[in-house]
Amino acid sequence: MAKIPEKMRWIYDLLLTAAILAMATVLCTLLRRIDDGSGYAVMDNSRNDLYATPELLEAEQYLFSMMDRKQETWNPDRNQVRDLVDRYSRNMKMEEGHGMAEDQADAAVELLAGNDMIMALTGPAGTGKTTTVNAILQLLENEAERVALCAPTGRAAKRLSELTGRKASTIHRLLEVDYTGGVVSFIHNDKNLLKCDVVILDEMSMVDVKMFQALIAALRYSCLP
User: Fold this and answer.
1) Are the CB atoms for 164 and 189 separated by under 8 Å?
2) DSSP codes, 158-180
3) What span, in angstroms and rounded, lies between the C-alpha atoms of 151 and 171?
4) E strands within the chain?
5) How far is it, in rounded angstroms, from Cα 60 to Cα 213?
6) pLDDT tens digits for 172-207?
7) Helices (H) and strands (E) in the chain, counts
8) What is the pTM of this model?
């Protein structure tokens, strides 16, 4: 780095100070815009903590309310569901040499017999999530009019299709993107619902809050995601 002559150092110091003050002014202006109550962010006034934008907060509150929503039209007998899962596991053992593990069968029963609007199947890699999903798909064939499989990305959707042997799409394709209004929106929404009984969404950890809100809003009350 070239050495600054002593006669020029005061100019360098002046320019550096001016740059720092300018950056501080811009930062303070941005902070004021965030905290001026005009909708840039949602604050907790008691702690003065920044939480989220109003849009994200609204989406999170909507999804939280959906977590407690119960199915009114789907209420199968748990014992009958258990018998179906056990029968599927026995057939699977005859065809593939192994049946479902106990925890996989239990998960399938909970997902099929439960009446929560939103249900999640989680577990590390290799714990049998795909086996459980395939069992659910097989058992739903005669019960559900339409089962939609989707994922947040094209690669994830392709992988889901390969694992299940069924057609899968991205969430965007399932909801059908509409570009006519000048902004990106979806053809399927709360006023034009998807015609499906069950939605299986893979790679949920990759789905953002707004996209999940759009998907849930486009589902019928009788749908099981």
Assistant:
1) no
2) HHHHHHHTS--EEHHHHH-EE-T
3) 6
4) 42-44, 49-52, 147-151, 169-170, 177-178, 185-186, 198-201
5) 8
6) 999 998 887 777 789 998 899 888 888 899 988 899
7) 8, 7
8) 0.72
Phi, psi dihedrals of residue 145, rounded to the nearest 5°: -65, -40
- Encoded tokens for 98: 């192994």
- Helix axis angle for 102-113 and 129-140, nearest 10°, is 40
Structure tokens at 174: 């399932």
pLDDT in tens, 142-168: 666 688 899 999 999 999 999 888 899
Q: How far is CA 60 from the centre of its chain?
A: 11
Quote the tokens at residue 80.
């009958």
Contact 37, 44 (CB under 8 A): no
What residues contact 76, with CB distance under 8 A and at least 6 apart? 112, 113, 143
